Each structure stands twice: as C-alpha cells, then as structure tokens.
Amino acid sequence: MAVDVVIDVEALRREIRKVYAQVSREPATDFVFPTGRAWALDLDYPPDLLGRVPDGAAESFAGVANPFALGVLLSGEHVLDVGSGAGTDSLVAAQMIRSEGGA
What we know:
Elements: H1 9-25, H2 36-42, H3 47-50, H4 55-59, H5 88-97
C-alpha cells in the first residue's frame, strides 16, 4: 500500500535555517546532530589548523564532511566557500593558502 506524502519544502528550509542559526547563537546546546570543534576533529580536520580557529567559529561548526580530506590547498590558491556556516572551513583554508606558504 503506497502512501502519498506531501512535503512543504519551504517550511523544511525555514526549519533547517532556524536550527543552524541556533547552532551559531547557542553552540553549547545539545543538538540531535554533532557540532563543535570536537566534531570537526572527529571528521579529521587538521588539528594544528583547527586549533587556530577562534572558539566562536569552531564551536558553531555543524559540518557533515571534511573537504580537506580531498587534499591540502596550496599557497596562493583561490577558495570560494558557498554556504559557509560558521566559517570554519574558510578559516582553515585561509591558513593553508596564506601567502607565506602552507600550514
């Protein structure tokens, strides 16, 4: 027996935005998904670079994967972080590509 389910995509988007905004405002809250610096470390973010990310950005991290697992960015490369959330990825990437060399 098939059941037709209607999903209000706009309502879903609003709720997702609301939850991610709450992560940024209240990072110490217990969410149903992992967040924070510890989660980024669990995803194998480079500990030395993540250690230099400000607490506000690192503790508001709510990523689902580690883009740096694909490889290290090289000095001078350009990066565009679309939907950057707390900015953790951008702050790690900036350290990799800074003009004085990689991490």
